[in-house]
Amino acid sequence: xxTLKLTIFKAKVLKDGRHKIRVAVCHKQETCYIIxxxxxxxxxxxxxxxxxxxxxxxxxxxxxxxxLNKYQERLDKIDNPGIxxxxxxxxxxxxxxxxxxxxxxxxVCDAYxxxxxxxxxxxxxxxxxxxxxxxxxxxRGDVRLVDITPELIEQYAAxxxxxxxxxxxxx
Length: 171
Prior knowledge:
This protein is of the alpha+beta class. It contains five helices and five strands, in the order E-E-E-E-E-H-H-H-H-H.
């Protein structure tokens, strides 16, 4: 399960000695960082995910909490986050289009299969239905089209190779 937390990346000190506050996206034993616009003067001004020892600490903490809540909402909208890498989840969180639903793989496939049946392309429609079922089984659910990435396709290809290589049959 992916988690978000506020952090300072100590190795990335600015030239003037200050530090940018980052959102750490932790998933599958990996961590990616989203840089925020907030900067602290030294490490003593950041403790347990909170800005401290500054006159504007309360305001900064409120803004950071709102940002973290926004990112968490976007993360919560991702179906089957387990199939994605940490980097992919970070990209989804940053993508503004996460606020819109978008068409799902299953809905587009079902509409296309229906059209094939209407045009008397039964064999092709059945093949597409089977392909759809295998991809949805791999995903363990549905996915929005905008969330299908090259990395996800590579994972699916590896999944298919493993199934075929293991002597399993479709069905």
